[in-house]
Design a protein that fits this description.
mainly alpha, globular
Length: about 70
């Protein structure tokens, strides 16, 4: 599984989630409903083969993406 498989909106939701945003905050920032954000996050988890936020963060760290993006 690769981050390249994520759509632009899925990547936006992923980065905001790993930065600590809640689904409500992501929804407000992107002007989308919470169920829509939940769907994007579910697709991200599926595409990256992760079950939870901790695994999503670990996947980004392993790919050397999180330190770069958050710094």
């Amino acid at each position: 599984p690769s981050f390249d498989a994520l759509s632009k909106r899925e990547r936006e939701c992923y980065w905001m989630l790993v930065k600590g945003y809640s689904m409500a905050e992501i929804g407000n920032e992107l002007s989308l409903a919470i169920p829509t954000i939940a769907n994007y996050i579910a697709r991200v988890k599926q595409k990256l083969m992760c079950d939870n936020k901790k695994e999503l963060v670990a996947k980004g760290t392993q790919a050397h993406l999180i330190e770069y993006y958050l710094s």
